[in-house]
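User: What would this chain look like folded?
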Amino acid sequence: MLRYKQLNINDIGYPVHLKNIDRPPSNLYFYGDLSGIDFINSFSIVGSRNATQYGQESVEWIVSGLRQKADCIVSGFALG
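Assistant: Here's the prediction, encoded as structure tokens.
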């Protein structure tokens, strides 16, 4: 089972670009390794908690293309 990691806004390694936005999140929860990612080519995915089959398939198709281009794909870990 994957275990997520956590970064606080005051921790070394917290993304500088994210720290400089209006009202940045105080904590980041993530899987993987954030070192070396500049987050310039990052994408965020916002979805429905009650996604349809078509919606789920569409997101899978979109994400499959983004994986090759994005430094980071951001999700809120919500169901859907």
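The chain has a mean pLDDT of 80. If you want, I can go into more detail on any region.
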